[in-house]
UniProtKB/TrEMBL annotation:
The active site is at D66 (proton acceptor), N135 (for ring-opening step), H137 (proton acceptor), E142 (for ring-opening step). The lineage of its organism: Bacteria, Pseudomonadati, Pseudomonadota, Gammaproteobacteria, Oceanospirillales. Keywords: Carbohydrate metabolism, Hydrolase. The keyword Hydrolase applies. It comes from Halomonas mongoliensis. Belongs to the glucosamine/galactosamine-6-phosphate isomerase family. NagB subfamily. This is Glucosamine-6-phosphate deaminase.
């Protein structure tokens, strides 16, 4: 379940390889994708390999984990914009095949229901890629979110808004709410790869290692899943025995 490699670069290469293997095995694979600093080198590696012709990605379908409420897709910090910049535009993926929750939906409850249903209608996620928040969140499932939740609107914790302030020119602009895929949707993926790199993840990775399955630590839900890889560099694994 735990795989520890020396450097962030090795972790990113390994994660990209897992994605490529999934696409090679099933060119019409359905992938669950994440954003954030951890994924930038993963997508850079993946794009490099795909542009080199490693496998054909043109028939992929993707669903992102989350999106801020209230940011337009063109906002530089929206997750739609992030995905365009790091992956979609660089691979020329057909836009009808890529999905993010709609942070501007008028009826967000209906949009949430439709998002989970769209994934299930395609037979579920072949592989879900995850990062982890310093408070243990996966997607934007913050501590004490019910593990039975599907896609839903969530307030962002003060910790998450502080952590993500680094991406905004004015940290006060970090939205207060987001839409996130639920833990239940995440656990239905056939395979899950969680990636954590750097010293800022060492404390939460040690907590996760020792934690029972507990809604206070959302990532601990993964301990119930039969096919999870937790992929760490030495710095993120520093406090794991
Ligand atoms: C992003 C997401 C979040 C991040 C987590 C870690 O789509 O779902 O759970 O994976 O906040 O973010 P970074 O990689 O920026 O430390």
């Amino acid at each position: 379940m735990y795989k520890i490699l020396d450097t962030e670069d090795e972790v990113s290469r390994y994660a990209a390889q897992r994605l490529l293997a999934t696409i090679a095995a099933r060119p019409e694979a359905v992938l669950g994708l994440a954003t954030g600093g951890t994924m930038e080198p993963v997508y850079a590696r993946l794009v490099g390999r795909l542009q080199g012709g490693a496998v054909d990605a043109s028939r992929l379908t993707t669903f992102n984990l989350d999106e801020y409420i209230g940011l337009a897709p063109t906002h530089p910090q929206s997750y739609r914009h992030y995905m365009e910049r790091h992956l979609f535009a660089r691979l020329g993926l057909p836009r009808e095949n890529v999905h993010l929750p709609d942070g501007l939906a008028e009826d967000s409850e209906a949009a949430c229901r439709a998002y989970s249903e769209a994934i299930r209608a395609l037979g579920g996620l072949d592989l879900q890629l995850l990062g982890i928040g310093s408070n243990g969140h996966i997607g934007f499932n913050e501590p004490h979110t019910r593990f039975s939740c599907r896609t839903h609107v969530t307030p962002l914790s003060a910790q998450t808004r502080r952590d993500n302030g680094r991406f905004f020119s004015d940290p006060g602009e970090v939205p207060t709410h987001a839409i996130t895929l639920g833990i239940r949707d995440i656990l239905e993926a056939r395979e899950i790869v969680l990636v954590a790199t750097g010293p800022s993840k060492a404390r939460i990775m040690a907590e996760l290692y020792h934690s029972p399955v507990d809604e206070a630590l959302p990532a601990s839900a993964l301990k119930q899943h039969p096919n999870v890889t937790i992929l760490l560099d030495r710095e993120a694994a520093a406090l794991i025995p």
